[in-house]
TrEMBL record:
GO terms for molecular function: oxidoreductase activity. It comes from Dyella psychrodurans. It comes from the Bacteria. Belongs to the short-chain dehydrogenases/reductases (SDR) family. This is Oxidoreductase. Keywords: Oxidoreductase. It holds the Pfam family adh_short.
Length: 270
């Protein structure tokens, strides 16, 4: 008998990093279930698509239960679902908007992990890979709330890796820098914009768009996810491409140099 393919569940797989990851895992021999809020599309991919909204407990439970019903196990969970936020001052987002950002980008990962871990514990094996960002360890002015969600993802990933490794489950966080994906075409705008931030908001957004033009594509992240998934001894943090140099800068550069570099890159007043 042929060995069964490992089963992967990838959230936010309709485009960008999620789609590239699902496709790469499929080529590598995984049977992949991707998810999106819309579910299966007319232009069906090389993997199965399920409907899933990571902000709703019932939707999360239903999708995980469906994969378990069909396959009996989940070997790999890739938590990718999330949305970007357009550059803005932190005070330009209401409390309700801040909660919405966290509900998807962080609590969505918590919901998915809570739903999948009991099955991985039972099978005494599993990998969880969370898609974070360099903004989980580097400051980004005018992206405070998004950065906060990615800091939360990094801290959560580190903590639960310690909790779960004795049960055969390992957790990693992949922290890319700028990635050129459709994700950046539908950014959440601030819901309480203030005139005092208008000019700098426009300048920072223009700068981000400039950098994205020459940024790596989502395939770079997908390759790192596969590497983390198949590693015998997975690392906790993976920083593909430019992100690896940025982590070194964060670790070794003097605070004043890093501070000045961030402001210079974003064309902010010193």
């Amino acid at each position: 008998m042929k060995p069964k393919k490992p089963i992967a569940l990838v959230t936010g797989a309709s485009s960008g990093i999620g789609k590239a990851t699902a496709e790469r895992l499929t080529v590598a021999g995984y049977k992949v279930y991707g998810t999106s809020r819309r579910g299966a599309q007319a232009n069906q991919q090389s993997f199965v698509m399920l409907s899933l909204d990571v902000t709703h407990d019932e939707s999360v439970e239903a999708a995980v239960d469906e994969v378990i019903r069909l396959e009996g196990r989940i070997d790999l969970l890739v938590n990718n679902a999330g949305f970007g936020v357009a550059p803005a001052g932190a005070e330009e987002s209401s409390i309700e908007q801040a909660q919405a950002i966290f509900d998807t980008n962080f609590m969505g990962i918590v919901r998915m992990t809570r739903a999948v871990v009991p099955h991985m514990r039972q099978q005494r094996n599993g990998r969880i890979i969370n898609i974070g960002s360099v903004l989980g360890f580097l400051p980004m002015p005018y992206m405070a709330l998004y950065s906060a969600t990615k800091h939360a993802v990094a801290g959560y990933s580190e903590a639960i890796d310690h909790e779960l490794r004795t049960m055969g489950i390992r957790v990693s966080v992949v922290e890319p820098a700028y990635i050129n994906t459709p994700f950046d075409a539908n950014l959440m705008k601030p819901d309480v914009p203030l005139d005092v931030y208008r000019d700098v908001r426009v300048r920072v957004e223009r700068r981000v768009k400039e950098v994205l033009v020459s940024a790596d594509g989502p395939e770079v992240v997908a390759e790192i996810v596969l590497k983390a998934a198949m590693a015998d001894h997975p690392k906790l943090h993976y920083t593909p491409g430019l992100a690896s140099r940025m982590r070194l800068l964060r670790r070794f550069a003097p605070a004043g140099v890093l501070d000045a570099g961030v402001r210079k890159d974003l064309r902010l007043e010193a």
